[in-house]
Amino acid sequence: MLCAFSFSAIAQEEEKAWSLSLDSITVRGFHYTSSVKTQRDGSIRWDMQMMDDLPKILGNADPLHYTQMLPGIQTNNEYKSGINIRGCENSHNLISIGGAPIYNASHLMGFFSTFNASHYKALSLHRNATLGSTSNRLGGELNMELPIDRPDSLGGELALGLISSQATLRTPLGQRTGLTASARLSYMNLLYSRWLKADDQQLLYSFYDANVTLSHRINDRHLLVLDAYSGNDRLEMNESHYLAEMGDHWGNSMAALHWFYDSREDFNMHTMGYVTNYNNKFSLIMNDADFQLLSGIIDIGLKSTANYRRWHYGIESVMHHVEPQSLKADGSFNKSNGHTSTTNSLETSLFVEYQQPIAGNVQAVAGLKGSHYLYDDKKSYTSADPSVALLYDDYMTLLSVSFSTKHQYLFQTGFSNIGLPSEFWLSSSDKRRPQYAYIYSAGASRYLFGRRYRLSLDAYYMQINRQIEYKGSVLDYVNSTYDIERNLIYGKGYNYGYSAMLQKCTGNITGWVSYTFTRARRTFEEENMKGYFPAAHERPHELTFVGSYSLNPHWSFGSTFVYATGTPFTAPRHIAFINTNFLIDYGEHNGSRLKPYARLDLSVNYKWHTRWFKEQGVNLSVYNATAHRNELFYYVSTKGGVQFAYKPVTFAIDVLPSVSYYCKF
């Protein structure tokens, strides 16, 4: 931005006039074009419009997938779902739509999330969610921001990909009301049936997502928003050799009503009521035996937060209906055929924060959060979590240090998180006391070279207590008495690490390069798990690059690259095959690591304008352009009943090209 002008000033003082004339003034600045912005509280806000310029894997630029390219977020392989923030388990993080929790935000194999990027305004990420206003989770928060602004005219977009198609419609409904509706439907088996195979058996898979957001502005101060989401996955397989049929159906549904109030002075408030539901049904029919594994969780919640001058306060009350994984078996060796008891609980939290300026650009933020968790009608847990932060902000440099304690009353565990949603939720109980953590963090960021670049540094340490792990396997459901408590073990752990990110904020080329170091260690009461060992998701070193280049109004290019240490696993020391049975002697728990993970994704976009559409475009993307064979996990393979080997599994397709078409109107 460049401008020049001249002016004169005249002032009257003691009946004497004076004047000053300048020939010109030159103002030079740079337009902030990056879609990723670091907020004053340290959170990251990602405009969803950037998804158009990044590689679209199988026609989808997934928000949750690209969040893993940010510093402090661990990279997942292709068959792992969830998100790990600063060494925490996926269950330690809150993933939400407009503040309403979503308990399983992944489709098959974790390759895609349940979020249709075109429906949402932005993604906000709190890696250091330590203040009292954040949820009762030990980790971070990821929230998809709702499209609450009324559209000026009818519009939308349509995208056609190789495995799914999606559409978004935006329209005004009168002078004060607006509607945004989106839908996505998959047809993966048509072109990518090779990808959906297990032991040469074809999988039949499909999923869908649907969103509706209706906003109505009552007046300049009051806004009502009704939001709803529904998504479902269906997986089926017929195994002819063992005469087995397998199926898994899982899905989320959510509805929320929001009320926003802004006094236009020094008070604003957000109140919401919501219902969210996640359920999973896994079924297996084999040799006249019929098994069903059922699990789910339903939340009914009311939340209200307000800001008044230097005060920030709020209340939240949530009723949890938790159904842990329960077994229904017929015709098997398992004689329990019991239904695991569901848990009904009420979680209520109150918080207050106060901001106190100290000197110049320095301020302190102190908060306190009190929580009460009532279960089994009469029993309860109560906690008080203090937090304190010291901030320095002069709009060029941001410095922060903080400390907080946090409690979490829900647990998640299971025998695997590879591909299928086999993990389930549990409530705090007499045996499962609430998790809690002590969290220390520090951060620094500064704009460089006239705000064209931004350098960010972060460090943290977390001490985590009362963790649980599931030590059983899927075979326990078939051949033994089903009992969750017998397979749960308890322990503790710690996370620490640091990260650095250099971001280019302006110009036709935007993006960032980042490095993250993470240690996530755990110890449990089990004999082979005593002593601290790496958590299953730990990647000590990660280097990521994200870039987009707008050549001209028609052509743009995108690229992402990640190089990360392999995740740990427990390798066997000896394997024996005796009387058609495997005998495996395992070594140190998580004492081995997969080979380093590396992946380069590329994309090119061409767009044009016509009289019928505001914009049309074609995207060509290549996933894993270097064809690097990334190891996902190890397994024991057999041949002819007598030969066996312990070898790694890699992704089914080395290089995954895709093409998609979109139009905006």
Structure description:
The chain is mainly β. 1% of the residues lie in helices and 60% in strands. It is globular and about 95 Å long. The chain starts with a strand and ends with a strand.
Biggest sheet, in brief? Answer: 22 strands, antiparallel, barrel
Helix content: under 10%
**3D shape:** globular
How many whole angstroms does the radius of gyration measure?
A: 27 Å
Task: Determine the structural class based on helices, strands and strand pairing.
Answer: mainly beta
Report how far the terminal alpha carbons are from each other: 30 Å
Total strands = 42
Mean pLDDT: 86
Which properties best describe this structure?
665 residues; mainly beta; six-stranded mixed beta sheet; 1% helix; 60% strand
Please give the structural blueprint.
Layout: E1 2-3, E2 7-13, E3 16-22, E4 27-28, E5 36-38, E6 44-47, H1 63-67, E7 94-97, E8 100-101, E9 122-126, E10 141-145, E11 155-160, E12 164-172, E13 177-186, E14 197-198, E15 201-217, E16 222-239, E17 244-262, E18 267-286, E19 289-308, E20 311-330, E21 343-359, E22 362-375, E23 379-393, E24 397-408, E25 410-413, E26 424-427, E27 435-448, E28 453-470, H2 476-479, E29 488-504, E30 509-524, E31 533-534, E32 541-550, E33 555-564, E34 568-569, E35 572-578, E36 581-586, E37 592-593, E38 597-608, E39 615-623, E40 631-639, E41 643-650, E42 656-664
Summarize the structure in short.
The protein is mainly β and 665 residues long.
